[in-house]
Structures are given as structure tokens and as C-alpha cells.
């Protein structure tokens, strides 16, 4: 009985010893294998699986613009991207629940409150495609992006598209400069945030106002 147990223990020790020897002899061979590829040297699709995203390769900017228009859009976008990288602290904005005044002034200085307002009213007069190129830079901070896009996409859009020349001359310059901020009345008790469900209407008063 003791002899059999001793024999079994010997076989186990021999097996473990052999396994260690195999691992030891295999180690140099494993180490000699070629190193993993550098993700930067791989195709955009392979880089994606390494957690890298080559934006221009996977989502190229549309070619609806002429060469001159693309160059102009890039010239506008580059300082915007640099401003967001150097001056915008998104974590602090989220913590404070407020965009600092110096950041707001920087947005004004870049002309970002009047991207699609005509130049004659103090804006940049961008097309939809050019506007979309600038928005690519804005969305690095959602708080600022919503502030600027709500101001322009729904806030002042009614005046821009349907306002009289007198209304445009009165309101658009200060909206383009960021001196005034446009807003949009959206929520009602029976509509929530469904713009199509709003029942409030503005109608002329008896005195014509």
C-alpha cells in the first residue's frame, strides 16, 4: 500500500518536473516571436479594433465644397479647435454648471454666435456644409455646443429665414456678435419637449402689436 502511494507520488513529481522543463525550454522560443504590430502601422479598420479611430479615413468630410471652400472652412475650424484644446475645461464647466465668461468672450471673438448669419448683418455667412465643419470642433464640449447650436439652429433661425428686413437689421447684428442670446420656447404641460405638439400661438393684438 505504502509502496503504491510512494510510486504515485514519484510519478506526480516527475510530471511536474517535466512540465517545468517544457515551460523553461519553450520560453526562449516564445520570446523570439515577432513583437505585436504597432497600431499606427495598421489599416484604419484594424486600428479600430485596437481602440483607435482614424476619423478622416472612416468618416471623410463630404466633398460638396470646392477646393477654395474647403480651404476656407479648414482655416475657420483650426483656430476653433485650438481654442477648445487650450481654453476650454469641460470637467470644470460640468462641475460648476456654468460656462466661464472668458470662454464665452472667446466664442464671441471667434464669431461662433453668427456662423450662418449673413455677413451684412455681422455674421460669417457659412453654408450648411461649412457650418457642419465648424460643429465638428464644437462638439468636443457638449455644453458649449448646445449653447451655440440652440442659439443659431432654433433660436434665431425664425428671424433669419422669415423675418422682415427691418427685423433682421434690428436683431441679427447683436445676435451674431453674441451680445444677445436667442432662445426658443419649447416646453408646455401638454407637449413636454415635442415642438410639433405646442399649442401656444402668437397672434397680432387689436392695436397691431
Automatic annotation (TrEMBL):
This is Acyl-CoA dehydrogenase/oxidase N-terminal domain-containing protein. InterPro entries: Acyl-CoA_DH_CS, Acyl-CoA_Oxase/DH_mid-dom_sf, AcylCoA_DH/ox_N, AcylCoA_DH/ox_N_sf, AcylCoA_DH/oxidase_NM_dom_sf. One of its GO terms (molecular function) is flavin adenine dinucleotide binding. Its cofactor is FAD. Residues 72-179 form the Acyl-CoA dehydrogenase/oxidase N-terminal domain. Transmembrane segments: none annotated. PANTHER family: ACYL-COA DEHYDROGENASE, COMPLEX I ASSEMBLY FACTOR ACAD9, MITOCHONDRIAL. Pfam families: Acyl-CoA_dh_N. It comes from the Eukaryota. Belongs to the acyl-CoA dehydrogenase family. Keywords: FAD, Flavoprotein, Oxidoreductase. Coiled coil: none annotated.
